[in-house]
């Protein structure tokens, strides 16, 4: 039985090179076809579907404001860059962008839920439920009776947490913590919806809670002694160790000793 003689080395090498060239040409052709295909107009982004807890935007407004800033088509779009574009919208806190074959985007939005104003009167900044500061058109607020908070940059979450802690303590005397501010030196200042100003002093949450609870438990007795009500308080200073000082509208200064006697 005869066996085939092995091919010379140069012939094998030629076959290998020819096969490699053929494969390379085939891959180049396929690549060219793919590049041509992904650029077809059918894959251009045509629409946006919006889901999530959205009340300030819909697909029409998003398309008008966002689409001009998106680059690429269904295949070439950078979804991370697209997410950042959506998150530049005033009420958008977080966006998740997904492709929806063949030419749409599906966007899940989480909006800021405004719970307070931030800064001085007239400031357009708001605080969301996470304690984050954001800017938005105040005319689009669903409710405008929000408390006003203030403090150093980066302290909004702390101020919101303190407001949420102190407001329930004030409920028994039927007043609302309308404003709360943290000074750069760490002092807390507040104003009630009755117009009463409160000096809460500095300290941790437990200390402020103790002072506020002491005030709530005794203030009705203190004001009734002068035939006044809580609503007629002009100011309250809670920074004293064993009591607090109050000033009543139409009454001369009431010192901390007066409150101590009522405790």
Query: What proportion of the residues is helical, as a percent range?
Result: 25-40%
Strand order of the largest sheet: 6-5-4-7-8-9-10-11-12
- What's the overall geometry? elongated
Query: Spans with pLDDT under 50 lasting ≥5 residues?
Result: 256-263
Question: Strand pairing plus helix content: what structural class?
Answer: alpha/beta
* N/C terminus separation: 120 Å
Mean pLDDT: 86
CATH architecture of the largest domain: 3-Layer(aba) Sandwich
> What is the level 1 CATH name of the largest domain?
Alpha Beta
Give me the Rg, rounded: 34 Å
> CATH superfamily membership of the largest domain, which one?
Cell division protein FtsQ/DivIB
CATH fold name of the largest domain, please? Rossmann fold
Tally of individual domains:
2
List the helices and strands and how they pair.
Layout: H1 9-38, E1 47-53, H2 59-66, H3 79-86, E2 92-100, E3 104-111, E4 114-118, E5 125-128, E6 133-135, E7 148-150, H4 156-170, E8 177-182, E9 188-192, E10 197-201, H5 205-224, E11 233-237, E12 245-248, H6 256-262
Parallel strand pairs: 1-3, 4-7, 7-8, 10-11
Antiparallel strand pairs: 2-3, 4-5, 5-6, 8-9, 9-10, 11-12
Helix pairs in contact: 4-5
Structure report:
- With about 260 residues, this protein is an alpha/beta fold.
- It has 2 domains: about 45-110, membrane protein fhac (Ubiquitin-like (UB roll), Roll); about 115-260, Cell division protein FtsQ/DivIB (Rossmann fold, 3-Layer(aba) Sandwich).
- It is built from 6 helices and 12 strands.
- The strands form 2 sheets. Strands 6-5-4-7-8-9-10-11-12 form a 9-stranded mixed sheet.
- Strand 9 (about 190) and strand 10 (about 195-200) form a beta hairpin.
- Helix 4 packs parallel to helix 5 (about 205-225).
- The protein is elongated and about 120 Å long.
- The N and C termini lie far apart (about 120 Å).
């Amino acid at each position: 039985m005869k066996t085939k003689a092995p091919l010379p080395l140069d012939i094998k090498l030629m076959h290998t090179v020819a096969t490699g060239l053929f494969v390379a040409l085939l891959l180049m052709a396929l690549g060219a076809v793919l590049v041509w295909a992904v650029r077809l107009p059918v894959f251009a982004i045509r629409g946006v579907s919006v889901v999530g807890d959205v009340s300030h935007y819909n697909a029409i407004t998003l398309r008008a404001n966002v689409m001009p800033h998106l680059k690429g088509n269904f295949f070439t779009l950078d979804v991370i860059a697209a997410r950042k574009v959506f998150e530049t919208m005033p009420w958008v806190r977080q966006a998740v962008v997904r492709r929806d074959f063949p030419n749409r985007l599906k966007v899940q939005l989480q909006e800021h839920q405004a719970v307070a104003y931030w800064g001085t009167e007239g400031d357009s900044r708001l605080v969301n439920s996470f304690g984050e500061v954001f800017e938005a058109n105040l005319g689009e607020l669903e409710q405008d009776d929000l408390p006003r908070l203030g403090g150093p940059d980066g302290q909004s979450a702390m101020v919101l947490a303190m407001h949420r802690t102190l407001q329930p303590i004030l409920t028994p005397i039927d007043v609302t913590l309308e404003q709360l501010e943290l000074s750069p030196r760490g002092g807390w200042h507040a104003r009630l919806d009755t117009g009463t100003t409160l000096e809460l002093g500095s300290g941790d949450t437990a200390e402020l809670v103790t002072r506020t609870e002491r005030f709530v438990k005794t203030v009705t007795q203190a004001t009734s002694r002068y035939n006044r009500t809580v609503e007629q308080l002009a100011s309250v200073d809670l920074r004293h160790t064993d009591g607090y000082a109050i000033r009543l509208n139409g009454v001369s200064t009431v010192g901390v000793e007066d409150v101590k006697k009522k405790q």
